[in-house]
């Protein structure tokens, strides 16, 4: 046991223990565009954490997830995706919680909401491609809470774009300052490694390093004659380049990183396990531990003794017949123990949690204890919703777990009108799970579904049939985006509702929303109704 761990063990007061345990947590998610290397990097991070022994495990899972569109498969995959939703592993006496952000076809609102439950994010960029669309969207969500971002420029073992140009692109497109921490030496076939600007050392690249135990060769100091022996002219080039980089880029500032204004940038190659350790070091050394969380009444600090937490995701469990769901709860303070009674604040009822699950090493295990920053899974039958808060009795409601304005819309029709009741019930429940959003037009037209990823519609159609016996047809609808409406002047609001009834709807929770046919339409309507506020996100009830 090291000194720090021993200190914690020796700490007598329960409060101090809770504080010390919480401080060791690092909870983060990876944001990236499909194919940038998220899966590969996740796997290497788990290898470093000793959570998996063999490379290829995560990738195999990904392949099975996407190889088929057979819906029976989706049912099976639900079990797998529950297990992979959160991956907890140890690193340097810390406990790292990596939250999966569903991407690719299963990109959904969950992808966004996961980002509200982390304290930092790792942005992975394909160095040959630069900043891509999905990364832009995800970073926008991170910005809602000024989440600190670490950047990894991946695939340097391939021909990539000029590193300086990549930094410029991140700065101009994503509007965040870049502070290079490592700098690549060559790329593609001439990729030699990286120079660590803060440690003044050169990490040498050897392709194909798959396991964490292989020691990396390091040359200390840029002026080290070993450099010249090894690299000849390339050493001189590097020295010149580093001088240039130091002059032209921002030095790393912890404070700016923590405020979400600056991102430390690392170059490497996930598939070769190169540069991965440096990211984990940055996560442990620089990324924040659990942050205080705002509620409607006060901010809850992670080192408070009493347990609190909120639910940011609901996932239907394997067996659709049982309607068993797992609610993902982020612990915000205190210590959670097995068998604990906690108060479900929306329902104002105490519930005993005897079978919460944790996500150690990819396997679901029974939770013995959890601290701020940790995620636990709670089995339930639909009585827990996204945004629900839990405590030991104090009435508080965490904020900051929003619904996001959908970007895709479909009109719902049913083949058999007799089933309309089941349709409504099914959609209501699926909306509560966050699988889709439902809009009921004021003028009584067909229900409109909203989503941020196309697969959401397919999953909803499939589950309506399988679980509610409803055959639904989804048709295109002339809606481009939605905005939730608020207005302090009741008369203006009534007028707004009357004049624009054809474009207004109530969402699943009864909130008024404006369904805009285009971006221009939205802008014009906003201009015409200056007293009305149009919200792109809505807090959970
Ligand atoms: P994801 O879609 O972001 O999860 O990306 P994957 O991890 O599945 O990677 C996409 C593709 O890029 C796969 O074929 C990987 O083998 C490949 N890849 C990932 N990292 C690297 C890298 O460092 N170098 C090279 N050359 N290929 C990589």
UniProtKB/TrEMBL annotation:
It comes from the Bacteria. CDD domains: RF3, RF3_II, RF3_III. InterPro entries: EF-G-like_DII (IPR053905), EFG_III/V (IPR035647), G_TR_CS (IPR031157), P-loop_NTPase (IPR027417), PrfC (IPR004548), RF3_C (IPR032090), RF3_dom_3_sf (IPR038467), RF3_GTP-bd (IPR041732). Keywords: Cytoplasm, GTP-binding, Nucleotide-binding, Protein biosynthesis. It is found in: Cytoplasm. PROSITE patterns: G_TR_1, G_TR_2. It holds the Pfam family RF3_C. Residues 23-291 form the Tr-type G domain. GTP binds at residues 32-39, 100-104, 154-157. Increases the formation of ribosomal termination complexes and stimulates activities of RF-1 and RF-2. It binds guanine nucleotides and has strong preference for UGA stop codons. It may interact directly with the ribosome. The stimulation of RF-1 and RF-2 is significantly reduced by GTP and GDP, but not by GMP. Belongs to the TRAFAC class translation factor GTPase superfamily. Classic translation factor GTPase family. PrfC subfamily. This is Peptide chain release factor 3.
